[in-house]
Amino acid sequence: MTAALGAGMDQTLIGNRLLWETVQRQLITETLQDYSYYVDRNDARGLVQEVFCEDGEFELGARHAVIGREELAKMFAKTLAPFRATSHHVSNIRIRFQGDDRAESSAYVYAWHIAADDGHRIDLWGRYHDRLRLTAEGWRIAVRRLTVAGCDGWQDPPFDLIERLPNPHNPPSPKVTRR
Predict the structure, then answer these.
(1) Within 10 A of 53 (CB to CB), how many other CB atoms are there?
(2) Which of 13, 31, 52, 116 has the greatest number of C-beta atoms within 10 Å?
(3) Is the whole-model pTM more than 0.70?
(4) CATH second-level architecture of 2-155?
(5) At what angle do helices 44-51 and 69-80 cross, to 10 degrees?
């Protein structure tokens, strides 16, 4: 990792940069976790204030987005209204810095929902793809896109499928050695 930061750089500068990145990664991770916290509390106002930039966007597929905290608050209130309970879980978080005040992240999501009207269960597995900005309020999501690997109990979710390479045609079997 030291080589990636530059051969011949002062070790103190490298150490300071690594410490800064470690702290920023933790703060970004907390922002991603805050999304789940506020969604599961059904707190649309808190969600947009604590997680999204003022001009933040939530992309709905490749051609549509909800933009700005006011519109995002309406979207989340409308989206969460049909549920009696939700539980969102993020994992496999990857963060790439695009300078000192911008980052991109991806995280896997499992989202469990119970419908308010009939109690049926909806499960969704997918990935969040985020662009984040460091603002005066802290790290905030500038753009979020959700792609879906699969879901149970939800007909035609309005999200794109995850990006996945095609399966190889007739792949060879590996040699298995008995020990």
Answers:
(1) 20
(2) 52
(3) yes
(4) Roll (3.10)
(5) 140
